[in-house]
Amino acid sequence: MTTPDARRTEATLDRSSTHGGGTAVEVVTIGDELLLGFTIDTNAAHLARTLAGIGVQIVRRTTVGDAASEIARAVEQALDRTGAVITTGGLGPTSDDLTKQSIATIFGRAMTIDAEHLAWMEERWQKRFGRPLPAPNRHQAMVPEGAIKLQNNHGSAPGIWLEDDRGRWVAMLPGVPREMRGMLADTLLPRLVARIDSGLVVQSRTLRTVGIAESLLAAQIEAMPGGPLDGSLAYLPSIAGVDLRLTVRDLPADEARRQLDEGERRLRECVGTSIYGEDDTDLAAIVLDLCRAKELTIGVAESCTGGLLGARLTAIPGSSDVVQGGVIAYANEVKQNLLGVEQSLIEAHGAVSEEVVRAMAAGARRVAKARVGIAITGVAGPGGGTADKPVGTVWIGVDIDGEVVARMFRLWGDRDEIRQRSAQWAMEMLRQRLI
Fold first, then answer.
1. Pairing of β 403-410 and β 393-400
2. Is the domain 283-434 a CATH 3.90.950.20 member?
3. How many Å apart are CA 116 and CA 137, to the nearest integer?
4. How many helices (H) does the chain have, and how many strands (E)?
5. At what angle do helices 214-222 and 253-271 cross, to 10 degrees?
6. What does the pLDDT read at residue 137?
7. Which of 29, 208, 334, 371 has the fewest beta carbons under 10 Å from its own?
8. How far apart are CA 412 and CA 428, in angstroms?
């Protein structure tokens, strides 16, 4: 893919600034908390996904702190490259909110009070809190001369659209994710759509897999009949599995959808049941739906995962019609007294064993009065491993109406990763038995 000409200073949206054929913008996210790692930058990712749907590609993302000089430098350089910039952050009422002033300086604009917005803020504050607007909040009603105010229906800070006589522009959005997403949908997207006449889009579709390694997936897909897929395919491994993200660019919406549909069909034929969902689908939601369809209820028994499996399942709204309850059976005494695991099994085979996990699964089903019992026992580390059962050794058992299937896994990662992988595999074992 080609990169934008760094010397081009008048590549504006309405003049069809391009990057590989698509309309291009740059994003500058602002805040010391982003650089220090205290806050994860979810705004840039949301902007990228949303803008791609209208044919706008983010060709560069930059993060800077709250220093006025750094904000101005980053935005000015982005304007020189693409002429179209979206910023997030720095529109609040405190002394470190310097975005508007910094960018106004680039455009040679003074700051002025928006009397209408100030009056709205004063009225809003009085109604909400029963007292006058604090002086620092007046800062939010300051806008650069000649700017267009972008309506914020989700907070007090207005967004700003600032454009020069060469058509270069900056759209300033709040940093609070809820406000940024709302303003993007309500105000900025319609404005950008009105400036674009190409009719081309960038669209992606993600297929989620579990239980198959990235290298094996790649080998299967590379050998897939019919040759390469239209568009680009990215492999995105995580603790939950490997996501396959197919992207098509610079196409009319109908053609983009057709290519994605065809690509999904071919991938599903190739990969098979390892694919459990699309886009942001949670495996827990899939499992719950399968159980509902078969009128199954679930009880869980967890040792090394300490309730993580139950938390994953009950995090899905409406899970109470499937999940009956569970037992965190860390101690052997709890396994015996609550789940009915015989002491002789633990003495003979150890707590991390096929025999014990089978008994735990049956016990979970019995205690919860459910049709499905899921049990996990293992060595999550960092200590506790032996030569026979090293750290990462996990046994998972699934009991459906008295028929138990148990499987041993050798999982990798730190303690948290092993626990998360254990919960994911437990749900996948149940899913495979129900599909």
1. antiparallel
2. yes
3. 14
4. 15, 18
5. 110
6. 87
7. 334
8. 17
| CA-wise closest residue to 381 among 411, 423, 351 | 411
E runs forming strands in 131-240: 142-144, 148-150, 159-163, 169-173, 200-209, 232-238
Least Cα distance to 396 among 369, 423, 371 occurs for 423
Domain boundaries of the chain, sorted by first residue: 13-195, 200-278, 283-434
Question: By mean pLDDT, which of 9-18, 96-105, 203-212, 277-286 is the weakest?
Answer: 9-18
pTM above 0.70, yes or no: yes
Task: Tokens for 234, please give them.
Answer: 């990215």
222 Cβ partners below 8 Å, 6+ apart? none
Q: Looking at 79-93, 192-206, 336-350, which range is the least confident one? A: 192-206
- Say which residues have a Cβ less than 8 Å from residue 56's Cβ, sequence separation at least 6: 13, 22, 23, 24, 25, 192, 196, 202
Tokens 């053609």 belong to 255
Amino acid letter, 281: T
User: Which one is predicted more confidently, 249 or 385?
Assistant: 385
Tokens 């300086």 locate to 105
**CATH homologous superfamily of 13-195:** MoaB/Mog-like domain (3.40.980.10)
Return the number of other C-beta atoms located less than 10 Å from residue 325's C-beta: 15
Strand positions, DSSP E, 303-362: 323-328
Cα-to-chain-centroid distance, residue 101: 32
Q: Is 125 exposed, middle or buried (0-12, 13-18, 19+ CB in 10 A)?
A: middle
**CA distances (Å), 274 to each of 146, 226, 388, 411, 429, in order?**
55, 21, 30, 18, 11
DSSP 80-134: HHHSEEEEES--SSSTT--HHHHHHHHTT--EEE-HHHHHHHHHHHHHHHSSPPP
Give the percent of the chain with pLDDT over 90: 83
Closest CA to 209 of 198, 218, 196: 218
- Is 2's pLDDT higher than 70? no
Beta-bridge partner residues of 29: 63, 88
- The tokens for 313 are 């399942």
Q: Are 50 and 32 in contact (CB under 8 A)?
A: no
User: What share of the chain has pLDDT > 70, as a percent?
Assistant: 94
